[in-house]
Amino acid sequence: MLGRCQTYTSEYMSAVNQLALRVERAQREIDYLEYLREADACINSEDKTLPEQLLQEAEEDKKIRTLLNASCDNMLMAIKSLKIVKRTMDTDGSWMKDTVSDSPKVYVLIGSQNNTVWEFANMRAFTEDSTKPAPRKLILTYSWQGTSQVLYKGFLFFHNQGTPNELIKYNLQKRTVEKRMLLPGGAGRARVYQHSPSTYIDLAVDEYGLWAIHSGTGIQGHLVLTKIEPGRLRVEHSWDTPCRRQGAEASFLICGVFYVVYSSGDQGPHRITCVYDPLGTVSEEDLPNLFFPRRPRSHSMIHYNPRDKQLYAWNDGNQIIYKIQTKRKKPLE
Predict the structure, then answer these.
(1) Which bin fits 316, alpha (ψ -120 to 50), beta or left (φ > 0)?
(2) How far, in Å, CA of 241 to CA of 245, rounded?
(3) Interval 86-129: pLDDT, tens
(4) pLDDT tens by residue, 171-190
(5) Following DSSP, what letter does each residue of 304-323 receive, concatenated?
(6) Residues contacting residue 87 through CB under 8 Å, at least 6 positions apart
(7) Where does the Olfactomedin-like domain start and stop, copy by copy (predicted)?
(8) What pTM was estimated for this model as a whole?
(9) What is the DSSP letter of 160?
(10) Residues of the chain with pLDDT under 50
(11) Are 269 and 247 in contact (CB under 8 A)?
(12) Which of helix, strand or coil describes residue 27?
């Protein structure tokens, strides 16, 4: 009986092994059929989404061209000269004229965290302390953060101190807040520029209007460029640029082209080594070596004024105007 049990056990184990082989073979066939089904589905999906993707890219390109449709075709070719307009004792600050209106008034904002704006009647009143009338002192209801403020059509735009990403549109004449917005995309989490420790969101104005610049997320810290509609204070479009925050001290835009100034943080040199054009008409290869005159330390701010085609800068307490040379960009294809 034991002999017969061993025989039955061997036959049973043999049957189990054969069944296991059949199950494994069946599983391979099932896996192969599943692979064929998924591959066919992927082909159908790719055939379906490729035209949609091309259409989406075409619509995106059309949107950008519509957004940047001003008759502006200049690109920067040289920093021609430097003029020190005035010197103050304050290391950080910003100064400006309205980027749109013909007003001769000059506005000075001292420090990286403050709420006092000094309004001078004209450039002479600003440069000559004895000139009358005396400057008008404007106290804002909120303080600014950094040195990124811009004046656009009579409104002061600034980063609200104590908030990571809130921008304020302020009516200087009425002394009231017109609009607020929260800049998305992780804005305000890190400094925009390595050599500008107080600025977390930079603002700029060019022929196309109002822009915001902030550092992107991640270790690399590439700069993010955002076009803002100034009336309703809302985002129109954003671009991830190849320009990095490491080594940067300031930036500005001319005719929609983004120029970033880099330095070693001390005696310079201060040079533009990264350029980004959302329309793709200007690249770094198109530009000569763009250097700023050597200064004792990094710039607190460099802003372009599209009305008088000059750069306004603040460096180690000096209020500076840089005259620039431009040439025509290549036309859009």
Answers:
(1) left
(2) 11
(3) 999 899 999 999 999 889 999 999 999 999 999 999 999 999 87
(4) 999 999 999 999 998 899 99
(5) EETTTTEEEEEETTEEEEEE
(6) 317, 318, 319
(7) 71-328
(8) 0.80
(9) B
(10) 45
(11) no
(12) helix
